[in-house]
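hey so u asked for the seq, here:
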Amino acid sequence: MKKLILIGILFFNLIPVLKKGTIGLAGPQTALADSYGEGWDNYDGLYGSLSDLYDLDIVGSHYNSNGEFVFDLSGGDLYYPNSSTLDEVIVTAIIEPFPDYQPPEPITDENANEIFDDFLDWINDNPPPETTPDPCNQANSLGKNESFKDKMDDLKGKTGLDYEVGYLFKNGGSSSADYTSLGGVAGQTQISIPISSIAGTIDGYIHTHYGSGTIPVFSIGDILSIYTLNNAGKITDLSTFTIGVVTDYGTQYILKIDDIANFNSFYDVHFTTNANMDALTTTYLDNVANYMNASAMDFKAASELAFLKMLEGSGMKTFKGNSNFDKWNPIKNVNDEVKPNKCN
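ran it, structure tokens below
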């Protein structure tokens, strides 16, 4: 058994009825150096479980310069555990958030230390799976991003022009310096993105649809531009990429990608040939006309619903914003009605 002496002090006082440890201020420290360190920092859920057991907000762990094991607490304080013995109750509570881990034998007080040792090995050998950032959290963050809101508001004031304008942005669009302006050509309902002149990669772009002759939602060309940028290697991360539009109809939307596999499949089906793109466009326009004629919708409402219907199964999620750009609500088509589209 490769159990280290340090393991014996790792989980002292895991539940409040045991002896309390001591809380101190942060001081000189070193990163975990033993073979178990990487696994701890890979699992936020493990620290959450420990926080519940200790009744503390544990956010990390390390060994200090004296070789003492220490839990890092939110706010910068440290927690020094005291001695105790692992038992069935404690080890069961520790592994409970990890259903994929199966102990080699039923846990008892007698084998609790060995099970815990085996669990630590499993933690190091099984890093957490990669997850796609939640698009709703991203949209909420944009609603709090002052630079993003300022740029969207700037575009809102330019929807009366006779050409499209926009911005590319990097670094999440967190400051004005992260934005590069774009300008279209008078009378043209499109905006050219100079892909070859983009230095590095971008996190998104936002633009206008001007005048009553354009559409009040994203266009199929807007969708194509995401694929074009991605195929050129100009998108930093598809799972966090944002495209936004502000229209002269008083509407504003952002589009996020929440299923990259479906997003790629949507491209394969609809954007690899001109014929496929034409078919998608025809279906979209037919749905707009149908909603206006059969359901007596106005052009703005019919365009929105037809766009949502077009994107079904695309791996993309549409958010509709308020006039201040600080609220972004996910929406979808449900039986030819616009309904909330909650994130997972």
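The CA atoms of residues 39 and 123 lie 5 Å apart. Residues 1-42 have pLDDT under 50 and may be disordered.
lmk if thats what u needed
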